């Protein structure tokens, strides 16, 4: 669990112009949706930014909603796979804790920033914050892992009702994406108070906060 976090935003690997059309469209949509919001961006704007034509947009996605879904699933699938690996490791250790589960929750999202996914994290934060209709797709995608987190946390804290654990997980999700969705702004705000944190230090602080959300019995 030692992958670092940076504010790199350029996609790794080959230049965008060499990518398949569907990938160019997704990357263009990521940038525009992050800058302006999903509802403020037309398919024509995405097409223009990607250097694609109308026919290719409709061939690959068919609609803007389908493009949004593909965009969310592409990096969301990577987050889910990484979380599954971390949860498998935690289960294999036989010694789960709120801290290791918090790290399994936060780190896969943070790693997307290092992999050029800053815009994607910003988009998801906006969807959660605005209760955009695409939120249902995010919650559906997270549901299988939410059940794993709930089961593991229930074993650690048997006195905590499942509904309380699920509530805490939704708050952890909101906090994680809101904090990482505009990492530079967060660090700038901290700097105003004389606190300077590296991206990795921000991630560790966030893991501490999520640990506090997940841990312990209800105070009532």
TrEMBL record:
| Annotated DNA-binding residue span(s) | 42-61
Q: Which GO terms describe its molecular function?
A: DNA-binding transcription factor activity; transcription cis-regulatory region binding
List each copy of the HTH tetR-type domain by range.
19-79
State the signal peptide span. none
Q: Name one Pfam family in it.
A: TetR_N
Keyword tags: DNA-binding
Cross-referenced InterPro entries? DNA-bd_HTH_TetR-type_CS (IPR023772), Homeodomain-like_sf (IPR009057), HTH-type_TetR-like_transc_reg (IPR050109), HTH_TetR (IPR001647), PsrA_TetR_C (IPR041586), Tet_transcr_reg_TetR-rel_C_sf (IPR036271)
Protein name per the record: Putative transcriptional regulator, TetR family
């Amino acid at each position: 669990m030692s992958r670092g976090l940076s504010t790199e935003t350029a996609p790794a690997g080959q230049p965008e112009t060499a990518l398949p059309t569907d990938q160019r469209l997704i990357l263009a949509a990521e940038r525009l949706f992050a800058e302006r919001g999903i509802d403020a961006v037309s398919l024509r704007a995405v097409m223009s930014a990607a250097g694609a034509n109308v026919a290719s947009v409709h061939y690959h996605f068919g609609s803007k909603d389908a493009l949004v879904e593909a965009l969310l699933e592409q990096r969301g699938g990577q987050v889910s796979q990484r979380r599954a690996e971390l949860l498998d490791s935690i289960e294999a250790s036989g010694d789960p804790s709120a801290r290791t589960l918090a790290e399994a929750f936060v780190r896969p999202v943070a790693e997307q920033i290092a992999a050029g996914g800053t815009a994607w994290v910003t988009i998801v934060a906006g969807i959660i914050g605005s209760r955009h209709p695409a939120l249902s797709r995010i919650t559906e995608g997270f549901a299988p892992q939410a059940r794993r987190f709930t089961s593991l946390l229930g074993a650690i804290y048997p006195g905590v009702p499942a509904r309380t654990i699920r509530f805490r997980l939704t708050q952890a999700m909101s906090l994680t994406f809101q904090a990482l969705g505009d990492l530079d702004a967060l660090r700038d705000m901290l700097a105003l108070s004389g606190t300077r944190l590296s991206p990795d230090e921000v991630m560790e602080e966030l893991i501490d906060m999520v640990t506090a959300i997940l841990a312990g019995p209800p105070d009532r």
